[in-house]
Here is the input.
Amino acid sequence: MIEPVTVWRVQLRRGDVSDREGTLSLEADALVFEDRMTGGKTRLTFAEIRSAKRVRGSPILLVGHGDGAESATTAFYFTRPPPLTTPEPGSGGTTPAGRPLGPFATMRRTSRRRHQRENVKYLTTKSSGAKIVIQAWADAITDRSRG
Here is the structure.
């Protein structure tokens, strides 16, 4: 039996990559995400789910869903996702792994490539303990969506 788990949901669409923390659970007929902030529930019925897969080397479950006319993909992070936007110059701050950016970070803009590389390192580090859990979720969703 798959137990409810805390995840961060990111709707994968242009312009809106905000994450929402909540609880992911399986019901008899749907995958349910309950938003921790608002208490609202998002239900994805198994009839509308097209695919569920674990992204290798990361703590991410991708769920493809939608009817024939409109389709979407939702990512469920089993750990807090790293910031998806590049930090502004002069903001200082830390890398997703929590290390300081360095003494010259306030003078230069963090490159997009460096930011992506730090995010990949962070996700790879966080994925080691979640692999079995995420694969179990993907298998359960796939089994139920196929009937």
